[in-house]
Amino acid sequence: MISIREIPSVASVGYGNKWTAERPSRIGTIALGYGDGYPRYAPNGTPIFIHDTQIPIVGRVSMDLVTVDLTELPNTKIGTEVEMFGQNLSINEIALW
Q1: The domain containing residue 16 runs over which residues?
Q2: What string of H, E and C letters represents the secondary structure of 14-80?
Q3: CATH (domain of 45)
Q4: Is 29:22 a contact under the CB 8 Å cutoff?
Q5: Mean pLDDT over residues 17-29, rounded?
Q6: pLDDT over 90 for what percent of the chain?
Q7: Distance of CA 78 to the CA centre of its chain
Q8: How confident is the model at residue 68 (pLDDT cuts 50, 70, 90)?
């Protein structure tokens, strides 16, 4: 996690404003994107794994960054490790999205 910011409801995230917050939200930015091999067209809601919890990607996957909704994980800090797929989240599950 390289960045965390608070956004108000109705604020949008990602290229083309592909996700709009329905409530005040805490958005995390992960330094990984389609340039690193993550699926470019992974839609809003595609899960990632952090703190023993699956949370959703929000906004469009960019070349170098992915944004996630951390609202339900208030203890997440910059530097927290995330699992995009692996031991706790299979690539097959990501592929279904």
Answers
A1: 3-96
A2: CHHHCEECCCCEEEEEECCCHHHCCCCCCCCCCEEEECCEEEEECCCCCCCCEEEECCCCCCCCCCC
A3: 2.40.37.10
A4: no
A5: 95
A6: 80
A7: 14
A8: very high
